[in-house]
Amino acid sequence: MWEHERLVVRTGRRSGLTTMVAVHSTEAGPAVGGCRMKAYGHITDAVTDVLRLSKAMTLKCAAAGIPHGGAKSVIVAGRELTPDLRRAVLLDHAELIDEFGGAYRAGPDVGTGPDDMAVFRELTPYAYCLPEAQGGTGSSSGPTARGVLAALRAASRHTFGTDDLTGRKVVISGFGSVGELIAKGIEGADITVSDVDESRRTDEYGWVHPDEAYEVEADVLVPAAVGGVLSPETVRRLGVKLIVGPANNQLTDDGVADLLAERGIVWVPDHVASAGGVIYTLAREDDGADHEAALKRVDGIEKTVERLLGVEA
Ligand SMILES: NC(=O)c1ccc[n+]([C@@H]2O[C@H](COP(=O)([O-])OP(=O)(O)OC[C@H]3O[C@@H](n4cnc5c(N)ncnc54)[C@H](O)[C@@H]3O)[C@@H](O)[C@H]2O)c1
Which Gene3D superfamilies match (predicted)? Predict the structure, then answer.
């Protein structure tokens, strides 16, 4: 069933590259969501991604109690763009964002960052997270990681009876900006990380090949790379008790949640665990909250997860 308000796919007049915006819902308020820049095998894969991600943003805002709807945008491009072509496609995309007249407001996502948001701002006011030097809140990775750690505390109390993870084994799949901050924020645990990018390997933590990350016997699994990692097939092979992480759309379909429950594996929905970035950004940039007050709102994810799992306070 078609449940989105709007999907626009456009060939950029400067770059010749395809970009798209999907607005899932503006019922609760203007729709917010990141702009993903990524290579896709086929254009239909990008459309599927933008539709799923925008819907997840509606759920994320609702679970976080934010008066916004969900949207997402995609720039179909790999990492090999020249600086000129990158700028051209960003300007093309900014033009498209602006046509939504504020119904869609963009932030960074995989493949884009604060500098790209500054390029958007040249053509539209509807971009968050500009670099701090330009008056924005910059990367949201820190608040996102903080929100995951808050979710992890509540979920650990539910699963293990304590939020002290000393001596427990934790596997983090995706050792990027959020994954690394999560690793730093977990005290006393035996941490193993995994990434498709071998250059991310470090002596500080154990290392497992990405193909095996979902088979390791451990207490906690933190999906911090890409979506679609929890399928009926992977769930059968999982050797963990708790899953909580920032990757968006972790399940290949909703039925996988039932399979996890059948196996007694606790899973914190990603739209709850990964909301720290959007909570922080909107608190600072829309509501004028200061850094500490915005972080306090991010920490509210702990209470949300307590309620979700029925944890005794
Ligand atoms: N940064 C945020 O504020 C934020 C907010 C909400 C959700 N998320 C989600 O959290 C996840 C991580 O975000 P990030 O900002 O750290 O991204 P990132 O690009 O910095 O890191 C992702 C890492 O995952 C690795 N990777 C890619 N495919 C992989 C695979 N199949 N197996 C293992 N590793 C793989 C990449 O090499 C990279 O190091 C993403 O799914 C993102 O959508 C991020």
Answer: Leucine Dehydrogenase, chain A, domain 1, NAD(P)-binding Rossmann-like Domain
Q: Is 200 in the pocket of ligand 1 (CB under 6 A)?
A: yes
Residue with tokens 């090949």: 209
Give dist(CA 223, CA 51) in Å, integer.
21
Same fold, 6-132 and 141-273: yes
Task: Give Dmax over CA atoms of the chain in angstroms.
Answer: 57
Q: Do residues 69 and 23 make contact, with C-beta atoms less than 8 angstroms apart?
A: yes
Pocket-testing residue among 37, 49, 57, 196, ligand 1, by greatest number of atoms within 8 A of Cβ:
196
Q: Binding site: which residues?
A: 174-179
pLDDT tens string 108-151: 999 999 999 999 999 999 999 999 999 999 999 999 999 999 99
User: Which fold is adopted by the domain 6-132?
Assistant: Rossmann fold (3.40.50)
Q: What is the pLDDT of residues 41-59, one digit of tens each?
A: 999 999 999 999 999 999 9
Q: How far is the CA of 313 from the centre of ligand 1 (A)?
A: 31
- Gap from CA of 51 to ligand 1 centroid (Å): 19
Model pTM score:
0.95
Q: Is the pLDDT of residue 312 over 70?
A: no
Given CATH 3.40.50.720, say whether it is the number of domain 141-273: yes
Residues catalogued as catalytic: 72
Whether ligand 1 lies within 6 angstroms of the CB of 228 is answered as no
